[in-house]
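User: Hey, my collaborator sent me this sequence without any context and asked if I could get a structure. I don't really work with proteins. Can you help?
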Amino acid sequence: MNTKINYLAPSVSEEKASGFPNCRELVTIVIERFWFGLAAAVVVFLVIFLRLSQAVPHYRSTALLMIEPIQPRLLNYQDVVVSNIRDIEYFNSIIKTLHSQQMMETVLSQSGLAERHDFFPGITGLSGKAAAALALLTINGIEKTRLVQVCFEHPDPQIASDLANAMARSYVQQELNSRMAASMLAVEWLRERSVEYRAKLEQGLLALQQYRENAQSVSLEDDQNIVITKLKSLNASLTSAQTDRIDAQSDWESIQSRVETLVASDAPADREKLQMLAPELDNPVLSETLFRLRAQQQRVVGLRERYKSAHPDLKDAQRQELQVLQEFNQVFDAAIYAIRNRYEKLLAREENLAKALKAQEQESFRLARQLVEYNDLKRNIDADREIYEAVMARMKEASLSGSLPSEVIRLAEEARPAGAPFRPNRSRVLLRGGMFAVASGFGVIFLLYSIDHRFRRNEEIERLLGMPLLTVLPMIRGRSIRDRGMLAHDEPAGEVAEAFRTLRAIMEINPSVENAKVVLVTSAHPAEGKSLVSLNLALSYAQDNRRSLLIGADLRRPAFSQFFTGTMGQQGVSDVLSGEVDWKAALQPASIPNLDVLSSGSSRDRSAELLGSRRFQDMLAEMRGEYDRIVIDAPPVLGISDTLVLLKQADGVLFVVRCGVTNSIGAVQAMKRIKASGTHCVGVVMNGVDMRSLANAYHYRQYGGYAYQQYIKGGGDTAKNGLKNGLNLIDKR
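Assistant: No problem. I've predicted the 3D structure and written it out in structure-token form, which is a compact way to encode the shape of the chain:
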């Protein structure tokens, strides 16, 4: 594999961690703080239960009021403006009236409830009891119906029903009384209006008759219709006359212009030119005369060719030609005169029709002006007559409604004493209390989770640090410090040794650090297990037949003296860097094959300068040639600068966090410093995971984490399958 791989530990999901906890992590969070949530839920539920047991039961009784779709109307013109009883304003008016102090005092005084000793015994006075009763009153309009609910709650069910019925009956009676009084007032008002409008109507009729007499017309409407008919007839005749006159004028002007063009004088030669116009005059007599004239002229031409001018037949023919020509001229002049005479007659007729039409229009305007005042008088009379008739009709109806008033509001259903308390509803309160208690428990759980910044799960590490979790180390119980440090050597078949072998395998197949000789192990704060991890990682390299060196670079708080006995801690890194001894002479054999240890040595004040010195670089360069793997146990990142000067000397960094101890805020800051140095961080190791905890057991086993015991018990096939699955996982990553 040549591509760079981002390795996860076997206990981590193959999918990339999201920005928020997933479902499995949420379950783990709940399991971790289950007892806190349970305690909060129990406390909340007990509080609700105690409040419920101390609550006084209240009984509710409901009376129904029906609002009928009938409303008295006094005048016809009120039909278009009368309010609809289904309007929300009408219902709100009823509800506000029922829920008023005055209405409640009226109800209590009329029903006698105010005098009862069991009705609010601790309150004196009518107004005080009315105010207390109003606090127990609920008025509701049922949606999409004409029903109004009058509901009362009281510890005594009988008082609740009596109060609801008294309220409903009092309001119905009040409405009846007000409507009867309104009907009587309406009758009196209508009687006065009838006398007024009757006098007004009579006065209008007299004024209309006087106007007709002054206008000398029985019916102005009929006169106007006659005038309009005449106007239409004259207008049609004038239009027809104009059309005929235009045609005649066109004919006359056309003939006149032709005659003036052809005939310049009364000479015979010019008169002969008129024969050319004869066909255009469309006159049968003129056409027949022209025909005879041309026949005679042809006869004269024929005789002139045969005889001389003195021949009697020729002279007789010429005489006849002259007679016919004179007759043609007379007929032609008569035809021209007829065309002109027709034009003049049509013109005179048009002028007469125009004068008659104008006179008729003036008559129409006069009648129209008279009709304006006439129609105004008539409209007033019609309006007065309509109002007078409506007043008379409504006066009769109001008289009947005064004796038999219609019930617009009536009692539809009486209230009855309740058999069970309305509130508190014990089952509902307990159900809601239980739900609220559960919600409170979860709220406490996630509140504690939100304020707890300690690492507990691999998803938190990957989400906040942005680095993969390489392995998880279980908590080691009941062992000394030396035994915990040497556990990978003392129990090579145990879970801890297997976890470090897994860590070693992941680092060996990671292309970015597979050839790295120097691995630096650090943490954010002290006491997070970095020395334990560095020692056991070095042991796992030694068990793999690799010549390994473990360097204790924590010069301020040396830790290897706790793991090794004998001469450990006498001379070490600080002594070598101070020039007091050669590094090879300072090595202490660890009685473990393939493993050498260079302890921290004596404590020094200027440890950062020693670790960043040229002598340390030269020493580390010599060590690279002598050993296959070098593990440096470095100080914590935060608080001191020792680790920062060591980072550039390492090929890779392992970051150690302790489950339930390492603060995520400090770890994030430490990881930022490591990334800023440019040294490759291989990943994170979680130390001290308590697998006996229910949350951790659920989380890591569900995730495919620690199944070492099951693997050992499952035999070789299970081991082969596990190895195969692990290799497949590596290939996928």
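In plain terms: The two ends are 11 Å apart (CA to CA). You can pass these tokens on to your collaborator as they are.
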